[in-house]
Specification:
The protein is an alpha+beta fold and 191 residues long. The protein is 34% helix and 19% strand. It has helices at 2-20, 70-80, 137-159, 176-186, and strands at residues 35-40, 65-67, 86-87, 96-104, 107-115, 120-124, 134-135. The strands form two sheets. Strands 2-1-4-5-6 form a five-stranded antiparallel beta sheet. It has a two-stranded antiparallel ribbon with strand order 3-7. A hairpin with a 2-residue loop joins strand 4 and strand 5. Helix 2 (70-80) runs antiparallel to helix 3 (137-159).
């Protein structure tokens, strides 16, 4: 019996110290001093080896990281500041689909793990306004709108051509637009 109580005490201590290591007031998310980073991991609805027990700090500065714009930060602030977007349930088996990392001076101050097919949000440190973190239908719709904005912006940035200053005409006898079209065709793709 003593071993069970000791194990339980160690578990509770480990869980509470994980959340205490980060000190962030979620109402300050839109503050200009904080940068908010989104990392897309997968679109899985069910747990896999890769989606369980993810350490969010492993993804700071990762290749797929995207920094939210001010309008996206405002939409996220709206979502995490109103308990009407959340229910009291959770999904049970946690697996991570995406991360939101809040940084100030290149130090992680807050983490949101988006889990269980995007239905469950876990906050570090805890955000009491989100109940247990389970999104209701209205919260899911707002989250979907936010992620659509983020993914559209990511796609637009990846398609933005890195063009040098080229003259507008007389490029091997072609106009600028025709030169770019031919260049894209030669390289088997578009910028």
């Amino acid at each position: 019996m003593r071993h069970i109580l000791l194990s339980l005490l160690l578990f509770v201590s480990a869980c509470s110290s994980r959340n205490k290591s980060l000190d962030f007031d979620w109402t300050q998310l839109s503050d200009k001093d904080y940068s908010v980073h989104y990392v897309q991991l997968n679109f899985d609805n069910f747990p896999t080896i890769e989606t369980m027990d993810v350490d969010p700090l492993d993804y700071v500065g990762s290749e797929g990281e995207f920094i939210l714009t001010d309008s996206q930060k405002a939409k996220l602030q709206q979502l995490i500041s109103d308990s009407a977007y959340y229910s009291n349930g959770d999904c049970g088996t946690f697996h991570t689909n995406a991360l939101i990392l809040v940084l100030k001076d290149e130090t992680v101050r807050g983490i949101i793990e988006i889990r269980c097919g995007y239905n469950q949000w876990e906050f570090q440190p805890y955000n009491s306004l989100t109940k247990w973190g389970g999104l209701n239908d209205e919260g899911f719709d707002l989250m979907s709108s936010l992620l659509d904005d983020i993914n559209l912006e990511k796609e637009n940035k990846s398609r933005t051509p890195a063009r040098a200053s080229l003259p507008k005409d007389d490029l091997c006898g072609m106009k600028h637009d025709q030169f770019i079209t031919d260049l894209n065709t030669i390289t088997f793709g578009y910028f």
